[in-house]
Amino acid sequence: MKKITLIGTFLLGALCFNNANAQDLPKPSSSAEVKQKIGLTDVTVVYSRPNVNDREIFGGLVPYNEIWRTGANLNTLITFSDDVKVEGKEVKAGTYAMFTFPGEKEWKVVFNTTTDAWGTGGYDETNDIFSATVIAKEGCHQETMEFSFENVQIENGILQLAWNKTLIELKIDVDVKAKAWKNIETAITEVTDKNKASVYRNCAKYCADNKMELDKALTWINESIKAQEYWFSYWVKADILHAKGDNKGAIASAKKAIELGEAGAKESGKPFAYKTRLEEAIKNYK
Fold this sequence. Notes:
Order of helices and strands: HEEEEEEEEEEHHHHHH
Radius of gyration: 29 Å
Mean pLDDT: 90
Structural class: alpha+beta
């Protein structure tokens, strides 16, 4: 009986030891994720963040002109939800490992299809799908390595990597109009009686704002108004007519928008907040 008890105690101790080893413990370089929507495209970077810790980083801990994992621990991964251009070069949608070759004045940046490696051990140049050389800039001291997105616009943004006093930037361009038009086509195809008014209006407004497909936009806004009369729909129609050169029709539609807006505001007991802006629009239509 005592022998069995000792064996049981040993097994229990072994199990406890294994469980202890399996615990999630903190790492010196913490993991991080940064995500940014550029236009309609999601760009995500997953990486580990080493600290300077009073060390010489570039040219020391990270040798010049040698491959670097661009972080710590597992490969740094970058994901694009759509096809993009990085530094003017086409990159297909997908997830890639980001490796760099830091230099004193320039860095080589590559994206590689091997995404499950540790450090640079699994790197194979033949799996590179992107390569670009960027300028190494001097910045303020950055103790913990950081990826961030800067100067984000509708059609592009800057992915910045900063550590110690060095930073590099990658310009990312997205084809937002192509993605938006694809979304419009899908929305029109899947339109229902319940959402017809808003779907047609939203599609028409995008076209009006971008001065594109104005004939289709006019058809869509008329369908929206047919489904539901709403003051904003008449404003969208006014903008479309103005873009098509029909200023008389645009003025009439804007006046109808004011009429409906004031009627709705009267029911709520509040003034129509957009009356002044519509009146200014009418002046621009003349």
